[in-house]
Amino acid sequence: MMQPAPIPPRILIVEDSIFLTLALQDMCDSLGWALVGPAVTLADGLRLARDEPIDAALLDVEIGDSQSWDIAELLQQRGIPFAFTTGHSLDRVLPARFTGAPILRKPFRLAGIEQMINTLLPSAASPPPI
């Protein structure tokens, strides 16, 4: 009997840099994950976080002139794991309610993204070869 194809994890990407968005899209494709979004504005991110089926999310801390805190709060309410991404020092930036949230530093490497998603979603890890 054939096993059904595994359902790829759905990863929400909130990132306002088009270059990073394209790179993240390629990364998700190469890892076999389904990309939700990408959201390039706070409004898009909020809509996707509220309405879409999502397994995990990567949230750029700064989206244009805003921060992604409201998106993170929505994901917390839905029980969806997420990590913040940033190129800045977060000692002074991360609000107390997100203390301990995973942080992925920019610039990214494919291995770093894969490791973060596998941490957020252990089921996303590739099964070992038989």
Can you describe what's shown?
The protein is α/β, with parallel strands linked by helices and 130 residues long. Helix content is 35%, strand content 22%. It contains four helices and seven strands. The protein has helices at 18-31, 42-51, 69-78, 110-120; strands at residues 10-14, 34-39, 56-60, 62-63, 66-67, 82-86, 103-105. It has a five-stranded parallel β-sheet with strand order 2-1-3-6-7, sandwiched between helices. A two-stranded antiparallel ribbon has the order 4-5. Helix 2 (42-51) packs parallel to helix 3. The longest helix is centred in the first third of the chain and has 14 residues, at 18-31.
Write the layout of secondary structure elements.
Layout: E1 10-14, H1 18-31, E2 34-39, H2 42-51, E3 56-60, E4 62-63, E5 66-67, H3 69-78, E6 82-86, E7 103-105, H4 110-120
Parallel strand pairs: 1-2, 1-3, 3-6, 6-7
Antiparallel strand pairs: 4-5
